[in-house]
Amino acid sequence: MPSLSANLAGIKSPNPFWLASAPPTNSGYQIMKAFDAGWGGAVWKTLGVPVINVSSRYGSVNYRSNRMVGFNNIELITDRPLADNLREIEEVKKYFPNHAVIASLMVETKEEWQQIVKDVENAGADGIELNFGCPHGMCERGMGSAVGQEPSILQMITSWVKEVAKIPVIVKLTPNITDITEPAEAAARGGADAISLINTIQSLVGVDLDRFVAYPIVDGKSTNGGYCGPAVKPIALNMVKNCAQHSGVNIPISGIGGIENWRDATEYLLLGASNVQVCTAVMHYGFGIIREMTSGLESYMREKGFERLDDFIGKALPNIKTWENLNLHYDVKAHIDPAKCIQCQLCYTACEDGAHQAIGLPVEGRIPYIIEENCVGCNLCSLVCPVENCITMVRKDDGSQSENWKDFVAAGKAPDSFNDQRAGGLGHWVPEPASALERKK
Ligand SMILES: Cc1cc2nc3c(=O)[nH]c(=O)nc-3n(C[C@H](O)[C@H](O)[C@H](O)COP(=O)(O)O)c2cc1C
Fold first, then answer.
1. What's the gap in Å between 19 CA and the centre of ligand 1?
2. Which of 21, 170, 188, 345 has its CA 20 to 30 A from that of 432?
3. Measured from the CB, is residue 232 less than 6 Å from ligand 1?
4. Comparing 6-318 with 323-395, is the CATH topology the same?
5. 199 C-alpha to center of ligand 1: Å?
6. Of the residues 39, 75, 215, 279, which should be mutated to test ligand 1's pocket, given the most ligand atoms within 8 Å of the CB?
7. Which atom in ligand 1 lies closest to the alpha carbon of residue 57?
């Protein structure tokens, strides 16, 4: 049997699946129920000076029949007294000594930070997560994402915490920033033992067309919230990858954002996360989703011959390059399987109006065909096709040639227009991957 046991900067848990700091981790009752169901760890709903929350507080983006593709909230940190939370942390650790209990924290002054760290350590927490990510309400008070967007402040507060902390410290990052590696590096410089990302993305999910107010509505008014759920996973995956590949970060990563099942979680692990955290999926479907997550990950590991998580954490990273390192000679073309085609012609419309006019309609019958000389292999037809594996992309080059953009330009093969632009002649935006890479170093 492969082992699912996980270790994030010395914080051990029976599996890599943690609940993220949010309503599902608001109380000891919920966390014990989650551990009973099979979750490996939980990050407590952020503790600090208790707040007063508003109602309503949630909104969602629904896509066709799918509920809550994206989820939006304007909730703040815990509204429960600190003493109650501390007592319950102690209780949870008594019943579940081998599960990870992490205290998420957000306060203001150095004294408050250092005091609350001691409080949660005394209660028995296994680790601390600094919430520098909340992008609504708390940031207007100078906390949450207001800290996450200022690397020097983030570093300073992290080092205050590290002065007193005896347990590992995780810095939770805000995605509301241009380059996630800047706060990630600052966290490492401040002494953080790990980073977690992402917190929510600042958002408005929609506007009520009759009441002229955005959602969620609080007595006729609204405010921007934080976006999460399946819609944010691509953004979070990219940020996790950026941190994992960055030599200045070099501390373990806890991946968060849109995880609903074992596949989502495994993608994060393959991109370098040592474990994952889940919020929206549990708010949507309940703690029971953990059963599919653990059994799915176990089967995957068995199938691939992995004995432990370390066998595949980060395994996809070497295959993610900057654009100019991709092979320009790799050539695929679309192929339609007539036996599977349901003749909806969605592929035809998409390619005709939105791509390269590489799909034709027959004079007789309704099954479209590919015009190979026009097909650039973009994938659009296979993405819009409602039938699985009806349109596949078939390799046409013989695999013998490989040349990336850098070599292509160096060999003088770039079109004149590109060279003119590089010389600044046209005043257009000029892609300069090399200089961006230089900045990174
Ligand atoms: C209603 C709600 C409340 C949240 N409260 C907190 C919080 O108190 N502290 C925190 O660090 N993150 C909080 N989050 C953010 C989540 O921990 C998580 O980072 C985010 O939702 C992305 O994960 P997901 O896509 O699985 O939901 C909250 C999210 C939601 C939806």
1. 10
2. 188
3. yes
4. no
5. 6
6. 279
7. 1
Annotated active-site residue 134? The verdict is yes
pLDDT score for 146: 87
Give the strand order in the sheet containing 225-228.
58-63, 66-73, 225-228, 201-203
Query: How many residues are present in the chain?
Result: 441
Q: What are phi and psi of 184, to 5 degrees?
A: -65, -40
- Minimal CA–CA distance to 106: which of 53, 142, 150? 142
**Choice among 134, 243, 341, 385 that is catalytic:** 134
Per the confidence metrics, is the pTM higher than 0.85? yes
Domain residue limits, the chain: 6-318, 323-395, 411-440
Helix (H, G, I), strand (E, B) or coil at 39: coil
Q: What is the pLDDT of residues 176-227, one digit of tens each?
A: 999 999 999 999 999 999 999 999 999 999 999 999 999 999 999 999 999 9
CA 405, distance to chain mean position in Å, is 29
Residue of the nearest CA to atom 19 in ligand 1? 199
Overall CATH class of domain 323-395:
alpha beta
| Packing angle, helices 82-95 and 28-37, rounded to 10 | 30
Distance (angstroms) between ligand 1 centre and the Cα of 202 equals 12
The answer to whether the CB of 233 is under 6 A from ligand 1 is no
What tens digit of pLDDT does each residue of 12-54 get? 999 999 999 999 999 999 999 999 999 999 999 999 988 888 8
CATH number of 6-318: 3.20.20.70
Q: Residue 241: which of 212, 280, 199, 270 has the closest Cα?
A: 270
Centroid of ligand 1 to alpha carbon of 21 (angstroms): 6
